[in-house]
């Protein structure tokens, strides 16, 4: 039976690929890669470097899968956003299913290299579930965890994610924008991901501190931290400059309300 391995490769440093992931890389026949265009070519270069460094007998093939279009309009309602993601996942599932059936032998092993960890804001496992539910192509699925950008952010700033006795909250920026006070009610810390801009710049809270990082764990890593009101402009400008320079940006940040007792 075919096997698909979904491998978390961390946020970009080949040294953060786990031993378990390296073993999985070395038994893969075909690596499936969704092609996101020239603007994201730097991401493919990191994947190529991971394979070059960690695969000892490179007898594998890389199969490119075109990325279907997706409605990313910031004006979408919550229901409209879910519908747009559903349509995008359906289109992706069809293309990936065809690639598996056409490029992977009946007993072959294929793999997807996923940024960070497959369980944190990544669509690969949901799409694989859709393909399996269709029943057109049979395969087993193995998941290899990886270092997340959330962990890399905390390590880069040398801070713990949680405060004493408090929860860790991770949210997409869309939810942050929908909150009138920025942070969800009752929380003093939140990690923000999937931000197409710097949504936190619109939050007026003098007690918030931000720990921001882009291209985490790579030679291009950029870090900014400080009171949100003082550094929001610096982060917004840095994002614009870095996106223009690289053609893409991957960043995340922690917002923390200071002045509150821990525990």
Strand portion, in percent?
Answer: 15-25%
Helix content: 25-40%
Radius of gyration from CA coordinates: 20 Å
Quickly count the helices.
7
CATH class of the largest domain: Alpha Beta
Integer count of domains: 2
Class by SSE composition: alpha/beta
Number of strands: 10
Descriptors for this entry?
263 residues, alpha/beta, Cobalt-precorrin-4 Transmethylase, domain 1, 7 helices
Give the topology.
Blueprint (H helix, E strand, L loop, with lengths): L1 E7 L10 H7 L4 E6 L5 H14 L6 E6 L11 H26 L5 E6 L9 H11 L4 E6 L4 H9 L12 E3 H6 L10 E5 L14 E7 L7 E6 H19 L4 E7 L6
Parallel strand pairs: 1-4, 1-5, 2-3, 2-4, 6-7
Antiparallel strand pairs: 7-10, 8-9, 8-10
Structure commentary:
The chain starts with a strand and ends in a 6-residue tail after the last strand. Helix 3 (78-103) crosses helix 4 (124-134). It contains 7 helices and 10 strands. The strands form 2 sheets. A 5-stranded parallel β-sheet has the order 3-2-4-1-5, sandwiched between helices. By secondary structure, it is α/β, with parallel strands linked by helices. The mean pLDDT is 89. Helices cover 35% and strands 22% of the residues. The protein folds into 2 domains: 2-144, Cobalt-precorrin-4 Transmethylase, domain 1; 149-257, Tetrapyrrole methylase, C-terminal domain (Methyltransferase, Cobalt-precorrin-4 Transmethylase, Domain 2), CATH 3.30.950.
